[in-house]
## 1
Amino acid sequence: MKSDIGNMNTKLETRNSKLRVGIYGGSGYGGSELLRILLLHPNVEISFVTANEQAGKRVGEVHRNLAGLTDLVFSGAPDGPSSLTDVDCVFLALPHGQAMALVPTLPTHVKAIDLSGDFRLRDQQEFEKHYNRAHTAMSSQAEFVYGLTETNREAIRNARLIANPGCFATATLLGLAPLAAKGAINGRVIVDAKTGSSGSGAKAAANTHHPQRMNSFYAYKPFNHQHVPEIEQELRAIGDWTNELVFMTHSLPVSRGIFASIYVETNSDFSEPQLREMFAEFYRDSFFIRLVEGSPDINWVKTTNFCDLGFATRGRSVVVFSAIDNLVKGAAGQAVQNMNLMFGLDEKTGLMLVGTNP
Amino acid sequence: MKSDIGNMNTKLETRNSKLRVGIYGGSGYGGSELLRILLLHPNVEISFVTANEQAGKRVGEVHRNLAGLTDLVFSGAPDGPSSLTDVDCVFLALPHGQAMALVPTLPTHVKAIDLSGDFRLRDQQEFEKHYNRAHTAMSSQAEFVYGLTETNREAIRNARLIANPGCFATATLLGLAPLAAKGAINGRVIVDAKTGSSGSGAKAAANTHHPQRMNSFYAYKPFNHQHVPEIEQELRAIGDWTNELVFMTHSLPVSRGIFASIYVETNSDFSEPQLREMFAEFYRDSFFIRLVEGSPDINWVKTTNFCDLGFATRGRSVVVFSAIDNLVKGAAGQAVQNMNLMFGLDEKTGLMLVGTNP
Amino acid sequence: MKSDIGNMNTKLETRNSKLRVGIYGGSGYGGSELLRILLLHPNVEISFVTANEQAGKRVGEVHRNLAGLTDLVFSGAPDGPSSLTDVDCVFLALPHGQAMALVPTLPTHVKAIDLSGDFRLRDQQEFEKHYNRAHTAMSSQAEFVYGLTETNREAIRNARLIANPGCFATATLLGLAPLAAKGAINGRVIVDAKTGSSGSGAKAAANTHHPQRMNSFYAYKPFNHQHVPEIEQELRAIGDWTNELVFMTHSLPVSRGIFASIYVETNSDFSEPQLREMFAEFYRDSFFIRLVEGSPDINWVKTTNFCDLGFATRGRSVVVFSAIDNLVKGAAGQAVQNMNLMFGLDEKTGLMLVGTNP
Amino acid sequence: MKSDIGNMNTKLETRNSKLRVGIYGGSGYGGSELLRILLLHPNVEISFVTANEQAGKRVGEVHRNLAGLTDLVFSGAPDGPSSLTDVDCVFLALPHGQAMALVPTLPTHVKAIDLSGDFRLRDQQEFEKHYNRAHTAMSSQAEFVYGLTETNREAIRNARLIANPGCFATATLLGLAPLAAKGAINGRVIVDAKTGSSGSGAKAAANTHHPQRMNSFYAYKPFNHQHVPEIEQELRAIGDWTNELVFMTHSLPVSRGIFASIYVETNSDFSEPQLREMFAEFYRDSFFIRLVEGSPDINWVKTTNFCDLGFATRGRSVVVFSAIDNLVKGAAGQAVQNMNLMFGLDEKTGLMLVGTNP
C-alpha cells in the first residue's frame, strides 16, 4: 500500500503531457481548494483562474496560504470561448446560477466540472423549486453526469460534463449507497447532518460571526435543504428507492467537516460485522472510502479526500456515520478525482492530501 | 414580566430564615456550578462543601472564577450524620456509586438532591446493566422522586429525596413530554443528541484533549448511553409509552451545551403552530421553557437554566429541537430549582442566570 | 465576604426609588451587556432602549439570550430632550462620532455615561488624529470625567458626564497605575495586548469570519491603536509619566476577553511579593481588582467585572499581566460601576456577575 | 516559481536510491508529523518506527489521519545498534532525557536528528539548570550541529548529528537573526511568544482540558522557558549578542501555531521597507521564509513548513512578528529540511505541505 502512495506523487510527467486547466471562480473556498490541489498535481498546469472582484491580484495575496507557491494572478470575467483554445478542462466554482450561462458557450473540446448546483438535477421543476430561479440550460443538463465518483465511475470516465455533488449529498449518498443498492432499506430514513462554518462560503455573514459561532449549534433549513432532491435522485438511480427521506442540517462550530448520522430501518437484522462486510464489498475499489471501527471523527478527514464510514446496529435499527471534509471530498477534491478519471489518470493522482494529528 | 425578574433577586430575606445547605463533591463541574448559584441564592447559606482531593484548599483557588467571592474552604470526606444537625439540605455531586453509600446514612431531617445516576432508575436490573455495578440501596431508591421539575412538580414539592435527571435525559424528556402525554407518537423515536466537552467532567482525558477536540465531531456509546433507561422510564410515567427509542450521543467541540434533534412520527398531521400550541399549553407554568421561532441555539442557553425548544414539521414527520446548558438545566440549575420547590420557594429563586450575547 | 455578596443582590428597593435609565444604542454588544446587567440591577428601571435598525423589535428577539426576561422593545432614534423628563441617567453605546451630536442636547438633570471614544481625550488634535473626524463638542468634553473607576472614584462620584474608558485602556491602565503613581517606571514600556473577537463588534466582518478566525492569531494597528492617547493622558494624570509607550494589539480566537502583557523596567529591583504588596495597597478598596498567583487567565474573568492582575519579576525587569472581559470591565460593567458611584450606590450593586468554571 | 514546486514532487527516484530512515518515538505529535511528511517523501523509505506503549499497533490505528496510507506497525523499544545496519538516518522524537542514552550507542554510519532538548546546549550547566537533570553524554553533544536551517546550512550539510531547534527558539531566532547578524540591536529585547495547545504534547493534561482551554489565554514559565538558553547561545553565534532577553510564553486556544511579537530597540532609525530589505537579503536563499505585508497570521502557516515574518517600526522601535506551525517548522518539518541537506537533497524535498484557506 505504501509504495502505491509513493507512486502517486512521484510519477514523472513531461511538461508537454500536462493537462491545461482553467478555474472559473477562484476566490471562494471551492476555488481556494482547487488551487491548493491543482498547483501540486503532477499532470496539471493551471492556465487561468478568474475572480471578478479580485482580478489583477496575485493568488497568494488573496489565499495567503498560497503565498510563495505560485505566481498566478486572478483574471477577470471569462472573455469567451476563443480564449479556451489551449484548455483541456475547466472547473466552475461560481455562485449558483452562473454556470448555467457559461456552460453552453464552452467549445466542445473542453471538458467541464461544475461545483455548483446548476446541473445536478434532471428535473427542471425540482431545480426551480429548490434553487429559486429559472433554469436556462436544461439541454446542456442532459449531457451532465453526476459526479459521485464511487458510484458513477464508468459514466464519469466517458463524460465531458460533470455535475459535482453537493457536500451534504456526498456524505449522505456514500453512507446510504450500499444499503440502497441492496434494496435493504425499509420505511423512512432520517439523516441528521452537521457542517462546519466553511460550508457557508468565504464571505462573512451573521451566521459565521466568530463571537457567536464559536459557541453555537443549531438546525437550519429543516426538511428543505437544496441537496435533498439530488440525494433522492441518485438513490433512485442506485437502488429501488421509494423511501421517505427526513433530512436535517445543522451548524457546527468548526471550520471544516461534515458529519452525517444516518438512521435506517433495514429489512432484516444486521450485525455490525455484516454491515461492514456489505460496505467493504461495495467499496472494494474505492481508495478514498475508509471503514473505521466505532465512529468516524471529522478531525481525521479534515483537509483530505477521505470519506470515513462507521456503523452501529441493533437488530433492524442501523446507523451509518459518515464524515468528510466539506471542501475536499465534498467539493474540490472530488472534482479533481473526477477530472483524473475523465483523462485516464489514476483517480488518486494529486489527491494524497494527508491529514494531520492533531 | 420585567418586574417579576426584579422580585426574584430583590426579595428581602432575613439571615435567620436561610436554608443551610451542604455540598458533597464540590470540585467537579457539577459542584462548581452549584457553588456559583448557591453563593448568590438569597435564601441559602452554604454550611460546607467537600472535595476529598482538594480538602483544605480555598474554593476560590480551585474554581478561580469564584476567587474574591467566598471564603469557603473545601472540607474532606463527610464525617458522619452528627455533623448534619444544622443542615437542611444536601446536594450530592459525587462520582456514580458514591451517593448509594451516603444516602442511607443521612438523618431524616435532611433533604437530599443527588446529581448522579445512582437513584434515577426504579429497576435494579436496568441500573446494574447500565452502570455496571451492584446497587446497594434500592430501599432508599424507593423514596426518591425523579427531579424533572417541569413534569414532576407536585411530587418534588413533597419529596425528601430527589434523583436529579441526567443532562441528556433532561433535554430529551422536555422535548418529548408534551407529545408523549398526548399519546401522539407513532413508531420509533430517534434522538440525535450532541454534548459539549464539559459533559465529560473536570478531569482531563484523551477525548477532551484540546488539540484534537477543537476540530472533532464524533458519535459515542451508540444505542446504550446510560441515560436511555431513565428516559424510557419517565416517558412511561408521562404517557403511554411503548415506542422504540433510538438514542445516539455525539461530542461537540464547545465547552457547554446539549442539543437534541428529536425525530418523531405522529399519529396525525401537525403544523408547526399546532405543535407550538400543544407545547405552550403543556409548559404554561414553566418559566424556564422557552419556545423559540426556528431552531434553538446552544449559544442562547449557555450558563442559564433555560431549555429552548423549537419545531419543524412535515405532515406526520415532526422534529423537536431541544437546547440546554448541560451543567445548569442539565445538572446544578435544575437541582436548585428542585430545592426551591422542596422548601416552598418560588422555583426561579436564585436562578436568574442571564445568558450573554455573544 | 460572603454576606457582603448576599447584600448586594438582596437589597429591598421600592419601585419609587429606582433610577430611570435610558440606553442609546442597544443592539450592539455594549448595549447587549448593558441590558443584561441593568435588567437585574435592583435600583434601576430601564425607561427606553434605542436601536435604529431594530426599532420596533422586541429586545429578546435581537438578543436571544434575553428572551423571556423582558418585554422591552427597541425604540427608534431619540426624539429630543423632551422625552427625557423622567430620566435620571443615559448610557450612550453608539458608534464613534454619534455621542458628540447627542450630548450637548441632553437636559442638565440627566447624567450621561458615554461608552464610545468621543469624549475621552482632552486634546482635540489627538482626538482628530486618532478618530479621523472633527470634534464638534469640545466644550462639552471639558465637563467629562474619565471613568476608570479605580483611579478616579471621587471625581466620578461628582460627575454629571462620564467618558467610559476603552477596553484596551482599562486593562493597560489598571496594570500600570500603581507603578506610575509611584514614579517607579524607567524608560519605555511595552504593552503586548490581545483581544477576543467580540472586540470587533456585533456586525460580521472579514476579520471575524469564523472559518478563518478560529485558527488565527495576528497583530493589527501597530503603535497606533486609538486607545494609546487615552492611556498616555491618564498615565500623566496618575503619575509623572514621560515614558515611551509601545502598544501592540493582537487578535485572539476567543469570543470574549483581553489579556495585556505589560513589560516595564523599574527604577529599582522588585521581588514579586514587593510588587504584589504595592498593588494590594493601591487597590485596597477595589473589590473588582483581584491579585492572582502566577498568571491570570481570561477564562476566569469572562462575563464578569473583575480585572485579574498577576506578576513576574527579574531584578528591574517587571511584567504585569492584566486580564478583563472586554465587554464588562472593558465596557458595560465599568459603565454601571460608574453609574452606581454617581448616584450614591455601592459600586458593586448589580455587578455580582459570577464567572463560570469551565 | 510554479515549475519549481512541480519539480519537488515529481522527481523520479528509483527505489534503490531511497534513504532508509528510522523514527524513535512515533506516537507523539512530533512522531505523527514526521510520519505524515516522510510517508510521502520521494526519497525516503521508513524502516521502523518505535512507540513503547503502542508497540504492535498499526500506525493508522494510533494516528487515525494515516489510516489507509500505510501498513507500518509500531515496534517496541529499540533493540540495539545491530538492527540499524541498513539504516541511513534516524529521527529521535523521544521525551527529554532519552536521546542522551541512545545517541552514544548509534553506529557511526547512521546520521541522527534529535527533536528533543537533549543536545541543543553546549553548556552543561545551562542544560542541567533548565532541564533539571544531569547530562550524561556531553562528549556526543560536541558533535552536534544546531539545526536552525536558515542560519546554519553549511554546517548542517556536513553534520552527522543535528540538534533540532525548539519551537519557540525557531520562531524567535528567525525573527531576530538578521538584526543580530548586523549588530543592529540596542538594549534589551522583549519576546512575547504564544503557542497553540499541541505544544503541550499528545497526552491529555489539565492545561489542555478542552472545556477550559477553549476560552483561555494565560502566561506561563515567566523568564525561564527552557528555550531561552538555546536562543541566547545561537544569537551569540549569529552576531555579537550581549543584550538582555526578556522571554515570555503564553498559551493560545488554537491547536497549532506559534506567534512571537519581538520588540527591539535598534541602533538607528529603521523604516519598514528598510527592515524588509535587510530581511530579504538575509533570507534570499530561504524558500521557507516568507516576508508578508502587515502582520503574519498563524492561520496561513498552519500544517506548513513556512515561517512568515512581518514588521512594524517607529523610529528605533522595531517589532518583528514571527509565525510558524510549532509541529512543522518548529519540529518535524525543520527536521526533514535538515535531513535533506545532510543527504545532498534540495531542502524543499517532501516539504511542499501546502496550507489551506480556511
## 2
Amino acid sequence: MNLIVQKFGGTSVKSVARIKNVAGIIARAAAAGPVVAVASAMGDTTDYLLKLAQQASASPDRRELDALLATGEQISIALLSMALRERGVQAVSMSGPQLGITTENVHTAARIVEIKTDAIRRHLECGRVVVAAGFQGTTAEGDITTLGRGGSDTTAVALAAALGARTCDIYTDVSGVYTADPNIVPTAKLLPEISYDEMLEMARVGAQVLHPRAVVLARQYGLPLRVRNTFDPDHKGTVLKGVGQMEIYRPVSGVTLDRDQARLAILQVPDRPGIAGEVFGALANSHISVDMIIQAFHEGGAVNDITFTVKRNQLQAARALLEQIASTVGAGGILADQDVAKVSIVGAGLMDQPEVAATMFRELGRARINIKMISTSDIRISCVVSDGDSERAVQLVHDVFHL
Amino acid sequence: MNLIVQKFGGTSVKSVARIKNVAGIIARAAAAGPVVAVASAMGDTTDYLLKLAQQASASPDRRELDALLATGEQISIALLSMALRERGVQAVSMSGPQLGITTENVHTAARIVEIKTDAIRRHLECGRVVVAAGFQGTTAEGDITTLGRGGSDTTAVALAAALGARTCDIYTDVSGVYTADPNIVPTAKLLPEISYDEMLEMARVGAQVLHPRAVVLARQYGLPLRVRNTFDPDHKGTVLKGVGQMEIYRPVSGVTLDRDQARLAILQVPDRPGIAGEVFGALANSHISVDMIIQAFHEGGAVNDITFTVKRNQLQAARALLEQIASTVGAGGILADQDVAKVSIVGAGLMDQPEVAATMFRELGRARINIKMISTSDIRISCVVSDGDSERAVQLVHDVFHL
C-alpha cells in the first residue's frame, strides 16, 4: 500500500494551536495518498492524570491506571480529527480498542500481540485519514491496556508494519538525529541517515528522539523510519534504515549525554555465587531500573566491588536497599554518588577499530576529566564522568572525532 | 437480583476528595449486596472539553465530539475504582463500550437500544463492584456515542432495568425533591414520596434533581428511584414510585422556578397554514430548543401572534432567525424579552381542581405580579413572569398552597 504512518508526540500536540499545526502536516500528506496519523496525549496530560491517580490511591490499581491514562490520547485524537475536518479532510479518531490493537494482559507496560486491521482498512478505503491513539490497546477480554514508555512510537511502527505502510514518519521537536545534542555542542551536525542499530545505542544512552522499542520493531520488519520536525516539516530529517544501506565507513556516528544518572557501589563483597543475583533481584523487585553494571575484582580475588548506575530519582530508594543487602551479605560498605553523567559514542564501525576507544579515553584524560566507569557494546562506548565535566567531555569527544 | 444501582452526578465527583467520599457510600452498600455505581464526569470536565473542541473547530464533528466527551466519565470511573480498591473493595471501571451499551447511531444525543449485560454480570458474580461510565455508549459499528443531557441518570436507570435491580439511587447535592427551591423558599419541605408523573413535571420546569428522560424510563419499567444526598448519605431522600402508591389527595406537590428563560414573539403573522411549522422547523434546524409555545388570535382572526420561550443563551440566535422569517412571511414584527422566568406548580390532582389554577392567577395578580404567558398540562400550571418578580412569586405560591 502507498500508505504512510505519521506519529506526533506530546510536544507536537501540546495545545490546540499545535494540534492545528499538525493537522496541516497531515492534510498535506493526505493530499498525496492514504495516511494513518498516530498521536500521543497532549503535553502534560499524562502527568496530570497520574497526579489525580496518586490522590485517589496510594498505589493505584494498574487496570484502572490504564483506563485513566488511555483518556489522554482519546482527547488528542478527537481534537486532531476535528481540526482535520475543519480543514475539509475526512478523518476519524480511533482508540486502541477501536483500532483492534490486542495486547498481552499486562497493565501499564503491555506488549502488542496482534492488530486486526479490518476497521482501519475500512476507513482508509473510504478515503478517510485514520487518527489513531498511540500508547494503548485492549486485552482479549476487552480491558484497556497501555504500552508503557515509548508506547506511541511503538503503536506507530506496529500499525505501519501491520498495514504494510511504505514508511513511518516520527514527528518530534527536533529536525532529526544529530551527532551530538546541539544545545551542548553547537557544531553538532544532523545525520541524514543512521542504521537501526546505531539509533538503538543512541536512544538507549540518552538521545531521546525515538524509543528503542519502536526501533527494534522497525528493524524486525525492515520498515524505514524517518525522524522529522513538527515545527519545520519541510526538513528531510533523518532516515533510519537497515544495515545494508548504512554508511559503514563512519567509525563514530554521534556522541550522547545522559545526565539522569547516579552511581552506586557495594564494596568488598565476599566472592561467592548468587550475590549479584541477590542485589539486582532486590532492585528489580522494587522496580528500580539499573543501567550500567560493573563488577571489579579486588587483589587476591576474595572480595568484589559491584558498581552500577540508576536514574537519579531512584538513588535514595536504591541506596536504602543496598545498605540492607550490604549488612546481610557481609560487604565492606556502600558508595552513592549523585554527581555523575554518562558520555557515549556510537558507531557501527566501533568494534573493528580499537583505536577509537583508546582515543576517547586518552583525550578525556588529557583534559583532566576523570573516567569513573566504562562500559562498551559492539557499537557503543560509554564513560561515566563527573556531572560537572560532562558537557565539556561531549564537546571534546565531538571535536576529536571530527563530527 | 438483590442488586442496587447508585448514580453520582458531576458535583458528587467534582474532586478526588469527593470521589473518596463517594467511595465510602458505595463501600457501605457493597457490604450489603451487589452494587453497580454509575458516575458522571468530574465537575466542569465536560465544559472544559467542549471549550477545547471549539478551539479545534468552529463546528466540531459530532462523532469526534462524542469520542472527546466520553473521556470525562472514563477519568472519573477509573479514579473512583482506584479509591474503592484503596478501601479494600474489589471494583472495576467499565466504559460505555465495555458495559455493552449499544445506542442508535446518532451522535451527541443517542438513545439506548440495548444493553448486553454479560460482561457486567461476570464481574458482579466475582463479587466486584462495577463502576460504570454514565452518559455514553457505542454504536453497533463500535463508534462512541453520548446520550446527551440527562445521560448519566438515563444510564443508571437503564442499567438498573436491564439488570433487574431492586432500586436505583440517584445521589445529588440535595436531600431529595422539595416543595420548592429551599434557596428561594426557606420553608420548603422535602417530599418523602412523589409519583413519576409529578416528578416529570417538576424536572421539566426546573427542579434539576433528576432528568425527565430517566424518570420516563423508570416509569416504563416500574423501577423505584430514590433521590439522595451525597453529602448526607444517611438521609432517606425522596422515593419515586408509580401512580398506585402516590398520595393522590395532595393537589399541589411543589412549586418550581426556571430562570433560564427568554421570551420571543413573532407578531401579526398572516393566518395561513404552515407558518408555525416554518418558524419552529427553522429553530429546530438551528438546534434551538423551544419550551412554551402560545399562539394567540388577534381580533378578526386574519393575523396571529406566536409567542414562545427559549433558553437565554439561545435568545440572540433565535432572534436573528425570527427576524428573517418575519420578513419572508410578512409578519408585523418580532419581540424579544430576556427578563422572564417561569413559575410552575405541579400536582397529580390539578386536573380535577380548576380552583387551583384560578387561585394561582388571582394571588399573583393581587401581588401585582404580571403574568406574561400561561401554559398548562394535566398536572402542571406554568406562568411566565418578570425575572425580577419570580422569587417573590415562588414564595407567594408556596404560601398560598400551604406547602
